[in-house]
């Protein structure tokens, strides 16, 4: 007798993407407080039970959206990084958090993490931790290649490079165009 296949838990890729896009759009339109699984299901054209079968919460949906969108729209340089590629990454990061709907997801999850320890833990495990490892590898590779001479350890360097950008985005303040150049020049030193 052939093995029985399970059809109830298999994700349909089209439906999965519809859910992720619906969550993204609804977050931009209504904010985190107005984002509900019911609204996501309705917008995506799937049953609410389907969403709960695939994701335990709206935070998990947003995390999947963020991870997928970040990989596509904010890739970390994989070629041997230089001061110029790091500078461009900072500019792209600034555009991402201020202009891209996925940037709004990132900022929302940062804010929600301040109030919900479970969200903070999941956010760190699934997104912040892995992303930090990739960014740290970028800084370390550029340092090892002699492209930059950071004045701080890699994690502190990243905090100082990305922190002002996130702060400006969270407070709806403009991000100065010269910020990336200034931070790179002051923090990473000459080649």
Automatic annotation (TrEMBL):
GO molecular function (one): DNA-binding transcription factor activity
Classification via Pfam families: TetR_C_11 (PF16859), TetR_N (PF00440)
Ranges of residues in domain HTH tetR-type: 13-73
InterPro entries: Homeodomain-like_sf, HTH-type_TetR-like_transc_reg, HTH_TetR, Tet_transcr_reg_TetR-rel_C_sf, TetR_C
Record feature DNA-binding region, as residue ranges: 36-55
Record carries keyword Glycosyltransferase: no
Keywords: DNA-binding, Transcription, Transcription regulation
PANTHER family: HTH-TYPE TRANSCRIPTIONAL REGULATOR RUTR, TETR-FAMILY TRANSCRIPTIONAL REGULATOR
Name of this protein: AcrR family transcriptional regulator
Phylogenetic placement of the source organism: Bacteria, Bacillati, Actinomycetota, Actinomycetes, Pseudonocardiales
């Amino acid at each position: 007798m052939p093995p029985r296949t399970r059809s109830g838990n298999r994700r349909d890729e089209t439906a999965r993407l519809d859910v992720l896009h619906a969550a993204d759009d609804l977050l931009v339109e209504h904010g985190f407080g107005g984002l509900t699984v019911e609204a996501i299901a309705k917008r995506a054209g799937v049953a609410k039970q389907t969403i709960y079968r695939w994701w335990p919460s709206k935070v998990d949906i947003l995390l999947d959206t963020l991870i997928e969108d970040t990989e596509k729209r904010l890739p970390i340089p994989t070629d041997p990084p230089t001061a110029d590629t790091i500078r461009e990454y900072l500019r792209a990061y600034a555009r991402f958090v201020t202009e891209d709907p996925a940037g709004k997801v990132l900022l929302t999850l940062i804010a929600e993490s301040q109030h919900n320890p479970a969200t903070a833990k999941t956010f760190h495990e699934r997104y912040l931790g892995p992303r930090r490892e990739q960014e740290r590898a970028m800084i370390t590779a550029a340092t090892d290649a002699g492209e930059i001479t950071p004045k701080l350890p890699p994690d502190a360097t990243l905090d100082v490079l990305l922190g002002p950008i996130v702060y400006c985005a969270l407070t709806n303040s403009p991000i100065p165009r010269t910020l990336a150049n200034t931070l790179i020049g002051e923090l990473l030193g000459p080649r």
